[in-house]
Model the fold of this input.
Amino acid sequence: MAKPDTAERILDIAEKAARTGGYNAFSFREIAAEIGIKSASVHYHFPTKEALGEALAERYSGNFFKVLGDPQGAEPAELLKRYVAAYGAALKQDGLMCLCGVFGAEIADLPPPVARATRAFFERNLDWLRQVHCRQGMAPEQAEKAAAHMIAALEGAMILARAMGDAALFDAAVARLS
Amino acid sequence: MAKPDTAERILDIAEKAARTGGYNAFSFREIAAEIGIKSASVHYHFPTKEALGEALAERYSGNFFKVLGDPQGAEPAELLKRYVAAYGAALKQDGLMCLCGVFGAEIADLPPPVARATRAFFERNLDWLRQVHCRQGMAPEQAEKAAAHMIAALEGAMILARAMGDAALFDAAVARLS
DNA sequence: ATTCTCCTATCTATCAGTAGGTAGATAAAT
DNA sequence: ATTTATCTACCTACTGATAGATAGGAGAAT
Done:
């Protein structure tokens, strides 16, 4: 451990909890206890819970699109495969929900900055997918529908698979996509 | 209002809150305040929160399948249309998430009885859809995939549409289904 | 070199608010 | 008399948040 980097550890712990049980599932005290500091010290790094939630969504989104890469880069078919795989990895490697999927489900009860960051994630997903589909020669209107459909199917597949405790259901649900 | 039927009103209020912000979004105090009784009185009707959560999921599931009807009844194509419309109605009429969709997203943090009732809802969905698809001449293996895909797409479409505050996104996401 | 000042990251201690839950009393209906 | 549905009054636990103290390091001024 070269650098503990407390702020990063806070985000790691909060993300895991949030992706398990939503916005109310992480608390300053629990995070502090897991790191071995006091809850007041967590407030030093993230002044309020909504600031932490917002940072959480922004970091998650950033990491997600870093994995996906440029929508104008690789072959469209390859990019779509990568897109589906990114969701699959979130579910199977981490064993957790998509952070913004959970936040999206409870969006109406989230503090505005967190809701905004969550919306930004989906907007960015729609945009990325629209571009890829257009490169496949799809008309803009169809590309919009196809993009919305893919996001929906993948987020829903994660919920279904986790609810039933059966990761194979994820693959079954998204088999037609890639 | 012939009968206030407190238990039913408790469920109504809890359901609305849960479908907005999840399991932690409803509380005995808030429910009591909205009805005009004391929180202790809510405990009379539902001894614990997990009992209330379980009743919530069971009632929701019951109502849902009452609307859908017998999977061996009407024409398969008509049944599937009805199925998609049922999700659409939950979103557009109530302006709320699917209760079990929200619960599904936070399944790992739910009390076991609530998690069980949530799983039961999805299991029943899978079963209903499998039957309808088989009636369309689909092989069992394909019917399973098609069923999982439909549930996933619809739950995800609700999340996406609500997150973006745009009900049209729901229709866009599920356009290919019906 | 030493001292002064500032910043970082933590601490202790505390607050008001809310959570779910319980015991026991009460009034009305059966 | 018993049951039903409510009440009052309370408990413990936890929430996010704040004020103020502290220790240690970095850089500049003396």
Summary: Chain B has a mean pLDDT of 96. Residues 24, 27-29, 39-40, 43, 47-49 of chain B lie near DNA strand C (CB under 10 Å from a C1'). The radius of gyration of chain B is 17 Å.
